[in-house]
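Data's thin. Show one?
=====
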Amino acid sequence: MDHHRAPCGRNHIVGRAVKENQILQLISREEVCKINCIGIAAWAYTHNRDLLINKNGQHLIKYKVTKDVARNRPVSLNPNHTHFLLIDDGLHDKYGADTGFRPLVESAINKPQEECGLGVPVVLLALEGGIDVIVAAKNAIQHRIPIVICEGTGRAADIIAFAHKHAKNIGTERCLSRLHLNILTDRISHAFGSHGYVKNSKKMEDVITMVAACIQEEKLVTVFDMTGDSDDDLDHAILLALLKAEATSPLEQMSLALSWQRADIAKSKILNDTVAWEWSSLYSCITTACIKNQVDFLSLFLEHGVIMKEYLTVATLRGLYNHASRNSFLRTFSGRLSDRKPNDRIYLSDIARIVHALIGAHDVQLYKYDRRLKACITLIMTSSCLAGTGIVHSAQEEYLQTDDSQFGLLTTTGPNALTIAKLANPGMHFDQPFRELFIWAVLNEKLEMAEFFWKESEDAVSSAVAASAMLTQMARLYKHHDNEAQFEEGARKFEQLAIDVMEECHNTNEDLAQMLVDRPYSCWGGKNSITMAAETGNQRIISKAAQNALQM
């Protein structure tokens, strides 16, 4: 949310960000989160407000924006907003009608959903500004909303920053010494003296009282020095302020850190000894990190003990595949193989078909049975046999709940009831989750993440050979595709990784190294690494294997 006034200062920066987001939505192949920028404006202080009146609501209003800004005169709405809330207090040509309303809106947005709020963390950003910024900061603190003060931008921001930095705790209050109070008074007089804020005036007393209110909650105030030499960015300061919000749970804090791509803050401020994490609560964050290609977060989660085998179920992996964008290679090639629409739901049986089409091999049972047909019950029965228990497993419940049209007839009562034994399903977790996530990353063109999962997987050589083969075929199939060069580069990278591992193993133990390349892998249809390399014409890997064999 922002003020409505003509684009300048903070409004100009926010407006530019909104414009860039709108352009990205038009030109990007990837899904881009839409930014909504809400302007709160005083109706009586809005220039050309009569043009906004639409009595029947059946036609669009043409509103002309003027960039002229005159003191104590209405101004145009800032065009770089997506929505406006216009506040009418019955007064004309008077600024400030929105001042009391704004904190109520922010508080409602900030409240947890269980308290009838939106559960969206809110922070007030103060850059420069007049008395209205001091009022807004005071209101924010009173509503327990954190504020970030950009010191060095002048006027109101510098006044609040000065008071905050020099305040001392005396009893239950934070106060300024007489010396610092005199300096504060001089600064206010220098900034706003032309508006009547001079020493010993009622206006001066009022503004000092408001500044004092701004600094009472020390933990809700973050000062960022815009002129300093710190390596920290403004986004770091804003995120730290958001993390201070009392309404923010540890999981919400982690989601914020993910959104801001700040794994460093997640590590130092969230994943610490003060919170006893139930790792299953982080599964949604792991999914987000995968989708957003945030390898540093995945590394952090693993470092702190997340077990990926418990995380990755059939339903979870299927969900990851269905986040592929409409124009991605995965959806385009899937549509070509099965004559489906780009937005049709993807099942793991579709993925098995794609991998087989690319390299001629893929054989993982849990992929085969994940399909549209009601015969998916085969998956349940197979898994229950693997489980050998009569306990309903959370992975099975998740699987049954992910597609209502698929499992509408599968119940636990009546003539079509499934037995408890059929529902028991620990087998719906993958034996090698990193390998499955590795394949997902390759097919979704997330090559940095693919390399991360490859390093964590068990079968380094065969997986690297398979990835090189898949990417080579992807480049051949989609000549002149936007990502053709990326496919080719990725194929070369995984080819080199396979060769490097073969060389390292050969230098360590020649016999075991030979067994490694000769070993057949059931997941690749019983083929070994050399066979896969030969079928896709990878001469470098074949040559390396032959060279190692001759040196034995």
Residues 404-413, 415-427 have pLDDT under 50 and may be disordered. The longest helix spans residues 484-508. The radius of gyration is 30 Å. The first strand starts at residue 2 and ends at 3.
